[in-house]
Write a structure and sequence with these properties.
Elements (H helix, E strand, L loop, with lengths): L5 E3 L2 H7 L6 H12 L5 E4 H13 L3 H14 L2 E3 L3 H13 L5 H12 L4 E3 L12 E3 L10
Parallel strand pairs: 1-2, 1-4, 2-3, 4-5
Helix pairs in contact: 1-2, 3-4, 5-6
C-alpha cells in the first residue's frame, strides 16, 4: 500500500451508491481498495455533510444516512474543519472562481493537511495549484 493520502470527494461514494452510471463501478472499486487497505485515503466532515445534504434534498433521508455511515466506515480518517481551514477556504474561493464553496473548503483542508491528491469527478479541482485530481473513471490505480 502507498502511504500517499488520497482525499476522497463526495461524488465517489455517491456514484458508488447511485443508479447505473459509467462511474459506478470505478467508484465501487476505489472504495473497495480503501476498505482493503490498498489505497490510503482521507476525507473531511464537510464531504460527509455534503452526502447527507444532497440525498436529503432529494427526499431520500434514509439513503443519506446509509451512504454517509458506510462511507465513514470505509474511509479510515475523517478530517475536522478548523478555523484555519475556513480562513484559507475564503482565500481560495476568491482566487479560484471555478470552485464551489464546499470545494474551496475541501481544497483548504487538503492544503492544511499536506494532501495533494484528490479522487473526484469534479474537473474544477484541476485549476487549483498544489492539487492533483485523479478522475475516478481513469487509471486511478496507477496514482503516485
Amino acid at each position: 500500500m502507498s502511504d500517499v493520502q488520497h482525499f476522497i470527494d463526495a461524488n465517489v461514494p455517491m456514484y458508488a451508491a447511485g443508479a447505473e452510471h459509467p462511474l459506478k463501478e470505478p467508484c465501487l472499486a476505489i472504495l473497495r481498495s480503501i476498505a482493503s487497505g490498498q489505497l490510503a485515503a482521507v476525507t473531511d466532515v464537510e464531504v460527509c455533510q455534503e452526502i447527507v445534504h444532497r440525498y436529503t434534498v432529494l427526499g431520500e433521508r434514509q439513503q443519506a444516512l446509509h451512504v454517509a455511515r458506510l462511507f465513514i466506515e470505509v474511509v479510515p480518517e475523517v478530517l475536522p474543519i478548523e478555523k484555519q481551514d475556513l480562513l484559507l477556504s475564503l482565500e481560495m474561493h476568491e482566487r479560484y472562481p471555478v470552485l464551489t464553496a464546499r470545494d474551496s473548503l475541501h481544497a483548504a483542508v487538503m492544503h492544511n493537511n499536506d494532501i495533494r491528491l484528490i479522487i473526484s469527478a469534479d474537473r474544477h479541482f484541476d485549476e487549483v495549484d498544489g492539487i492533483e485530481r485523479i478522475d475516478p473513471g481513469g487509471p486511478w490505480g496507477n496514482a503516485p
